[in-house]
Predict the structure.
Amino acid sequence: MIPLTPHLLPLTPYTRCILDGRIIVITSGKGGVGKTTATASIGAALAMEGKRVVVIDMDIGLRNLDVVMGLENRIIYNVVDAVKGKCKIKQAAIKDRRIENLYLIPASQSDNKNVLSPEEMVGFREIISKEFDYVLMDCPAGIERGFENSVAAADEAIVICAPEVSSVRDADRVIGLLYARSITPKLVVNRIVPEMVERGDMLNHSDVVDVLSIELIGLVPMDDQVVVCTNTGMPLVLQKKSLAGEAFRRIALRINGMADLPIEVPQSQSRFWKKLGTRLGLGK
Amino acid sequence: MFNDFLKKVMGSNKSDSREVAKKRLKFALIYDKLEVSDDILNALHRDIVEVISRYFEIDHDAFKLDIRRSDDFSALIVNTPILSAKHKDPRHSDL
């Protein structure tokens, strides 16, 4: 038998080594629905599970993942340097000092999105997936070059969608584009306001799933702690009382193999107490 | 009818913007998917002219390709004057 050395095989998605890390793009089409928060939080939660995780900011020219993670003062190299081979991945990846095994590769702030090409990104994925268990890519809003670059490097995708008409419509468009690239995305419905859902003033999660018809992987409530954590650059998932942080932690567990972990539907406080009362035999 | 009247009298604060949102969304997505870009339309134009030209002599300048939409359906309208028919079956032209 001829021994096969992995590096002599053509590096297509189908022949990649099973030991290689998973590359997941986090995308939404529309801006402002929570991609960056989701990337930072899911990445941090996966690292807390003991996995080696790198989160990459693909929003070249408008970087933000660094400030959300509180690592903006430690940037030396960026993703453009890493992809172009101007530095080693180890040099571009900033280590988070609060969470073991979590790294950030920031976006370049001075370049234009066209400095990278999807072809270069395909080459980059082979290098980066050897170094980490999970590579999460924070995709920029829109469906132009930045999206193309992010998707070219990914094997899997998570679509973040807020329960409002414009966000769902853009998510539908992005899902179509992902399918065209043979990626079957999973859905996170973010920024759910349970009080509005309960009084019929917000699309509920089954409406969104119904319209988009892709697999749901998590429901995240609107949470003031997101703004508070972004203010200070603290990881949301370290915030014990954050409902959104808890939801992102559960999403990370589902990604990391606990596929049957139940998806909890965010509930309003009043509904919660009413339910508790019923369980305790109070009221009807 | 009576329920609506009751709701008005009782001043119910239940609104249903969710239902409206879902309906509008479904229609928007259907319409979005019917939209065809100019590039695709031009490519289709080229291909159709090429196929028809194998069988007919046609007036290329008068060839018209259009998508017409009404509330219920979309239709692709192709209109071309035929100058003459070609009597040889193009599939056997090489034999």
Remarks:
- The mean pLDDT of chain B is 81.
- Chain B touches chain A at residues 13-19, 21-22, 24-26, 28-29, 32 (CB under 8 Å).
- Helices of chain B lie at 2-10, 17-34, 38-55.
